[in-house]
Amino acid sequence: MIIATRSITIGIFAFLLAAPVRAAAPAAYHVTLYPAIKMPQHATAIVHGQIVGDGPGLVADSPFTARPVVWTSPDKQEYPPLPKSRMRNFQVTAADGHSFVSTANDTIGGPRDAFLAIWSDFHQPPQMITLPHYSLLRPYDICGRQIVGYAKPTSTASDRPPIQAFVYTGSTFITLDPPAKPPAIIICGVRTTDGTHQYGFIIPPGGKEHPTMWNSSPDRPVDFLPRGKTAGIILHARGSYKVGVVDHHAALWTGGPSTYRDLNPPGSKASIANATDGTVVIGAVGLPPPASRVPARNARNTLQADRPPEHARATAWINGKAIDLHAFLPAQFTDSSALHIDAEGNILGEASDGKTPTVVVWSPGPAGSAAAPVHP
Fold this sequence. Notes:
By secondary structure, the protein is an all-beta fold. Helices cover 0% and strands 49% of the residues. It has no helices and 31 strands.
């Protein structure tokens, strides 16, 4: 369980697919700060109720450029066991509530086959998946038996891109980029999976990002860009919910392309929806980012469409209402963002006082009576 330092009461509501209904009882949120997690350490997600991420470390006097870290409390960290190999780079980039995934690369010598390392038990070595003919991998999400991300082939045919979007289905590695790109597509990017479909974006020639869905195949991707909008990306999907950003506004689809909803609170200039558990949507509300801004490490990529808002405030959308999670933080924090939510409703995010980012967890607790602040 996550240790609580402050509690906040907030009404929790349940969504049943595309028809939201109110939950039977409210619950409280507790806020826990993790100031000991500092760069180059990086918190990725909450797995089995504990924060997982990566950072440099020493084990048996062997240096690692990156290795998995589990924070069991704000001041205690553990290192999951690693496979016996020469590999020294295990960067955690994808997780769900039950397991987390790292790339595995040998930093000694020349290029070699890439690996995926999957941990479902913090106390056991990971399952290792070898991907021949690929020298670099970047997983973005795991759900069920599917893992999605980017892969770099050791050699590329003239009709294939140098970096390819992929889905791993537990037994098969599938490239989502068409063998020969049709004139309507120049870049494919996958960001998430709901265990069945894959989601991300496609960029047409001379255009901007279109939120997109695949069905474990490069054939016939589905365009989710709403009519009249210019750009968007789907960043996360769970259950029937797909969330992301469209024209710098937080976006939600509860089904197909026609179910799009603009979640940007009235009067707000910009927002982003980073993740969902299939019921609650989390992200941030703020000001539109400058075009020249370089995203922080927690941003999903360097594309313009999903750059996080400036002067952001962590936000949760519950039953259509934008709940201001930032209001529950100590006064010294000026910016915050909610980045990950697990199946129990625990929310992982970051807050900053203008100098140093601090990892934050909002976790549901016992029922209470305080009112939750709502964005105007």
